[in-house]
Amino acid sequence: MCEGDEMNKIKLIYEGKAKKVYETDDSTLAIFEYKDSLTAFNAQKKDTMQGKGRLTNLISATFLKLLQDKGIPTHFVKLLDDNHQLVKRLKIIPLEVVVRNTSTGSLCKRLGVEEGLDLVPPLVEFYLKNDELGDPLVTEDHIRAFGFASKPQVEKMKELSLKVNEILHKFLSKKGIKLVDFKLEFGMDDEGNIFVADEISPDTCRFWDMTSKERLDKDRFRKDLGNVLEAYEEIWRRIADWEKSCSAEYRANILVYLKEGVLDTQGKAVLSSLYSLGYDEVKNVRVGKYIKITLTSPSQEDAASRIKEMCEDLLVNDLIEEYSFELEEI
Amino acid sequence: MKVSVVIFPGSNCDRDVKWAFELCCNADAEMIWHAEKSLPSDTDIVVLPGGFSYGDYLRCGAMAAKSPIMKSVAEFAQRGGLVIGICNGFHILTEAKLLPGALLPNASTKFICRSCQIKIERNDTPFTQLYEKNEIVNFPIAHHDGLFYLDDDSLTKLEESGCVVFRYADNPNGSLKAIAGITNKEGNVLGLMPHPERVVHPLLGGEGGVRFFKGLSKWVKEMR
Lengths: 330, 224
Description:
The complex is a heterodimer of chains A (330) and B (224). Chain A is built from nine helices and 16 strands. With 330 residues, chain A is α+β, with helices and mostly antiparallel strands. Chain A has two domains: 12-245, D-amino Acid Aminotransferase, Chain A, domain 1 (2-Layer Sandwich); 247-329, Phosphoribosylformylglycinamidine synthase subunit PurS (Mth169, Chain: A, 2-Layer Sandwich), CATH 3.30.1280. In chain A, the strands form four sheets. In chain A, strands 8, 9, 10, 11, 12 and 13 form a six-stranded antiparallel sheet that branches. Chain A has a five-stranded antiparallel sheet with strand order 1-2-3-7-6, covered by helices on one side. In chain A, helix 1 runs parallel beside helix 6. Mean pLDDT of chain A is 92; it is low at 1-5. Chain B is an alpha/beta fold. Chain B has helices spanning 14-25, 69-78, 88-95, 152-160, 210-223; strands at 2-7, 28-33, 45-48, 82-86, 102-104, 112-120, 136-143, 147-149, 164-168, 179-183, 189-192. The model of chain B has no long low-confidence stretch (mean pLDDT 96).
């Protein structure tokens, strides 16, 4: 842990294949420590690669932050250092949700379908988290019948998974990466709110380079393709500057007008001019200001709150004026 | 007496007010560029002069009120230092919330530049102690946006707390209650639309403003 961090690891709660989870001073939070180990085929194949924990930690933090920015609730709180991140402590739903955009892996093996088929709309599959059984595929009826999750929970997980797919797919395309498929886990807080939990990294996703079709994920390890760490590093290299690159441009159209009751001399002058031109039907004229601002911002909410600040700080004198604005992504 | 005159881009009465302080009370008046972060430590009085800071863009005084120097001016005022905003300087003080109210375009919609009869409402302030109460003086005005505005409740409170120091005898611009100049509650920050610095010598057409500057000098001496 880096010095000065207010969060302390108190007790190891769980150790998995790729990470350790610790209790913290705050009972609602936990610390994830990403390990340098790699496993595949339900841990039948194992290896250790120095620096791998750092990469999965950073990549996962970046994806989770990106999702949060786009309004997806996730368990991510903050990055602590290269190997640790602070997350919400949740009750994990015992299901893995897999979203597939392209056929490959177990899907092809199980159904004998060709690899590389585009799946439109994407497939959503549920797997029961159970190492002894090898995480078997389950149907929504199985989930309901055996109480793995409730119907609204299943619907929420499905909805969130598809949204996550849309966001990551769009984001990664810009980075020249094809999002083939990925796995998500979900957890609930004490109020029953559902969050995306666990990790999103080359350990849990399939990434193909869009031009070379090269595998940039754990398949390199599964299939002994070599350069595993290099592939993880390549993913990190392409997404590390996301905060800059994923911020969008917005245009705010701001209207500033005098409050009711504040004398508007311009309006009065315009009114008398209109009368002298014969527009007798005019009852009242108020003249305001129209200010158009373009800005870059990581999200629409962020842009809106910045525009509000600008209005209150400079653009509007709240003693005499009121304002409203519309925001559009450009 | 040390006077710091702040110059904003577009100020144009800065040299007049410096000259008036020098002429009337032999003051040491220094020009301070708005981008400075602090006032000279021996400052007795800060003046925000008239003019068209930032071309009156957005609202008169709005951008000048956000200048780097204004933080230091606010702190100076907070400590009880004398701050005077004349014309556009008055705009800046209201925009900086160092004074209540706002100044709207004149009711006539015209720029008015002429001598004006101003009634001294109070002579127990650092700014007016050499005038008689209710005395009428001639100060010129030169502005397009001088209509003093405040919502009804605040206006009543302003009057009740005796913050109105100058009032127009003929209300040329439609100001509420014909208000021409006010102080803050503490009485150390003054904003006024008329220009006392333009009537400090017979060649300028009058000497009605001389006592404004001499009074300040006397006040500062007595406070020391």
